[in-house]
């Protein structure tokens, strides 16, 4: 695979992560939508770490840097998707209409009904 194709594929993976984050944010309850953006931050952080490590071990050929960027984008997408999956599971009670643990927990000084 040539350098241009690898770079195009890497940018497409980044875009897929952004689209997945936006789509999940749309279907989440309104109080949880901002958390979807944090999944994107996780993926970006993983990608930056992978680029930092990869550039230290890659040689100076453009093909090597394209490989590093492609692997970093794939790892970042994986991190984003895993984070979105965790968010989806965490928000299941709110999406199903069941009272969440946060909403049903008593505040300090408040009495619980019998």
List descriptors.
5 helices; about 75% helix; about 110 residues; elongated; mainly alpha
In terms of DSSP E residues, the strand content is under 5%
**Distance from first to last alpha carbon:** 67 Å
Order of helices and strands: HHHHH
Q: Note the total helix count.
A: 5
Largest sheet: none
Number of strands: 0
List low-pLDDT spans: none
Classify the helix fraction into a percent range.
Answer: over 70%
Q: Kindly state the mean pLDDT as a whole number? A: 87
Radius of gyration: 20 Å
The dominant shape is elongated
Can you characterise this structure?
With 114 residues, this protein is an all-alpha fold. It has a domain at 1-6 and 34-94. Helices cover 77% and strands 0% of the residues. It has helices at 3-27, 33-57, 62-90, 92-96, 101-104. Helix 1 (3-27) runs antiparallel to helix 2 (33-57) and helix 2 (33-57) runs antiparallel to helix 3.
How is this structure best summarized?
The chain has 114 residues and is an all-alpha fold. The chain has helices at 3-27, 33-57, 62-90, 92-96, 101-104. It contains 5 helices and no strands.
Task: Give a topology summary.
Layout: H1 3-27, H2 33-57, H3 62-90, H4 92-96, H5 101-104
């Amino acid at each position: 695979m040539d350098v241009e194709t690898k770079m195009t594929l890497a940018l497409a993976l980044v875009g897929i992560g952004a689209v997945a984050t936006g789509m999940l944010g749309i279907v989440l309850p309104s109080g949880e939508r901002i958390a979807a953006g944090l999944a994107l931050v996780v993926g970006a952080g993983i990608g930056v770490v992978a680029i930092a490590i990869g550039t230290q071990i890659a040689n100076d050929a453009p093909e090597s840097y394209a490989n590093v960027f492609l692997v970093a984008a794939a790892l970042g997408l994986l991190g984003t998707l895993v984070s979105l999956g965790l968010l989806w599971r965490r928000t299941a009670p709110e999406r199903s209409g069941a009272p969440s643990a946060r909403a049903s927990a008593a505040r300090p000084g408040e009495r619980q009904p019998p």
